[in-house]
Specification:
Three copies of one chain form a homotrimer.
Chain A (H helix, E strand, L loop, with lengths): L3 H17 L2 E5 L5 H11 L2 E4 L6 H5 L4 E5 L5 H16 L4 E4 L7 H13 L4 E4 L1 H5 L8 H6 L3 H15 L2 E4 L4 E4 L4 E4 L12 H13 L5 H20 L5 H14 L2 H7 L2 E3 L3
Parallel strand pairs in A: 1-2, 1-3, 3-4, 4-5, 5-6
Antiparallel strand pairs in A: 6-7, 7-8, 8-9
Chain lengths: ~270, ~270, ~270
Amino acid sequence: MFDRELAEKAGANLEQVRRSRPLVHNITNFVVMNCTANALLAIGASPVMAHAKDEVEEMVALAGALVLNIGTLSLEWIDSMIRAGKRANEMEIPIILDPVGSGATSMRTASAKRLIRELSIRVIRGNGSEVLSLAESGAGTKGVDSVHGVDEAKEAAGELARELGTTLAITGAVDLVTDGRRQLRVHNGHELMQSVTGTGCTATAIIGAFLAVDKDPVRATATALAYFGLAGEKAAEKADGPGSYQVALLDALYKITPGQLTEGARIQKEPD
Amino acid sequence: MFDRELAEKAGANLEQVRRSRPLVHNITNFVVMNCTANALLAIGASPVMAHAKDEVEEMVALAGALVLNIGTLSLEWIDSMIRAGKRANEMEIPIILDPVGSGATSMRTASAKRLIRELSIRVIRGNGSEVLSLAESGAGTKGVDSVHGVDEAKEAAGELARELGTTLAITGAVDLVTDGRRQLRVHNGHELMQSVTGTGCTATAIIGAFLAVDKDPVRATATALAYFGLAGEKAAEKADGPGSYQVALLDALYKITPGQLTEGARIQKEPD
Amino acid sequence: MFDRELAEKAGANLEQVRRSRPLVHNITNFVVMNCTANALLAIGASPVMAHAKDEVEEMVALAGALVLNIGTLSLEWIDSMIRAGKRANEMEIPIILDPVGSGATSMRTASAKRLIRELSIRVIRGNGSEVLSLAESGAGTKGVDSVHGVDEAKEAAGELARELGTTLAITGAVDLVTDGRRQLRVHNGHELMQSVTGTGCTATAIIGAFLAVDKDPVRATATALAYFGLAGEKAAEKADGPGSYQVALLDALYKITPGQLTEGARIQKEPD
């Protein structure tokens, strides 16, 4: 059921992140800045948070990936994201977008769509409602109304990925990764991850680090999600609630070896 | 000494929060955003942080309660708080205010008073100095100078609650909750809570969640404080310092059952 | 090898911080606000975070030290830092600067230099690249290119400290503290400190608290770094990765007694 080659690539990507320590430039929300930075350090990457319009272009030029997250956005921050993103595009630095809360307010949906329109974004990660709210056409709309999980989102996601020309990751009990042609499912993870704020944002940042070392966005995304999900499984063994779970999650990200990831990754190729 | 009916209501409110998972909209300070979100998740509520003036009205319309906290305020944020608060008032969504540092600088005191003047606020929670700094009349002034604890603040608080037409919660070793007619005291808590930043802000957010399910502000506030205080007691059993205490506090909030809260709540009706 | 008098002063400074509970005013970055506040509470100081231009002058007037940190700066925040700093200078309240990322972007380097030019700063703490990027002359430039550790930075640091008329702390495996005349080395610390975000910023804030009780900046800085480093050593005994390390670090800061610090501090006077 699970693909051995992708599991091996997961381990290899982790090893490569630890060896090359890519700088990951985050323009992200206030809630998760600290835990995102700690997660990136724990996996072996090098995080930087910088949002001032006067420095983002210079900062992103040093980075291996750019993470854009609209969780506590304001319009000034979106301007900085556009500016950093354009420079990233010029330099072919991969961009990943986390459209937190897109669909909940019109400002968030419009901001996410503006980023997608003005930038070339390699991966978008969110939950079903967030991702499917990004459709300009009706592709996602029907999906949004009916989405309860990955299965319901599957068709709409494929159509939307083709429309946007990007890779989409819809995370949930099982994660779906698709570029509209290939679909992968990641079965790693634990339900306690939902009880800690910012785990979705952390997943996005880890995908950013993997994009810095793997040019195939579908594969980079699925292997990153398998890694984060495996850490979530290991953390659950030590947790006594969401406080200790959050602590154990960072420890697990730090301790998982490439070999353990290859053994533990549960990535499934979708039958056509 | 402790009121059984209120203890049972504490358990019932907790059960109701976990069942209905109210969305709690926070416009709060940078220091506590992460721990506030985690605490709200741990109790079973659904947190959102959003401060942009362009979206707060739309966001608060989805919420069961609005939490305003001036801990790292700037004037733009106050404008967003006013905007969100007016919409909340129109929709009868309860507002709770945490006037962090009111009394310390004139900008903070003036901002807190402006929020109180322009909005209808259901509950204000702070320490003695913060709460009593809010008096336009001399009601609180004398209090501020002499406050060392809840006892000294008692009379001034009752007078101020009547003046402001709201419920006040002054938290300390024993918490005082009053609307100027009724007074309740909450005896739960632990001294280690003071060694972790943002525990006051967390208390405020939990009161917000309880206001979403209990229309009586005095009762909602006292039951929420009993719950948080009981978690503080349980956390102390596992802590080896403020770092592990913070972790154990989240775990305890998550694990306390409605039945345990009913058994452990120590809420006292003030003799007239 | 290690200086006994300085070790005793470390213990005495810690005792004095816990007795006088100095208010430490931080204008710092979003990533570390929470952990900085918690560290200051854990050591016995009283933290406040406030950045609005309308209140920083009033707030700093209440403080025993002012901590400026440019980690997620924007130009408005620099203006607030200047404003707070000028008031601090008038009142002879010590200022410590953490030039996070100086050298990485021209905005950061220029902002750090502006703060140094317009304010009288008692201590600057950073890593080798950050500190040496501050040279207006060529003093640091050569250093930046070649810095791998404290040893390489030593000569450039002394020259730069004289040029800037301040005390510099370059932290790493061994910390170097110099005002251009005296040099101290602090041998406390643990490599896991690098795996947690904001440990440098926390070191800066703790130095701030020590500056509030010790008028000798070289000594205050070295004793604060010995304390933080000792906590880092003790935390390592309990950690299973960076998550649990961060927790144990706060616990250790809280639990270390002045006597333990005197026994554990490893501060070395530099031979001339």
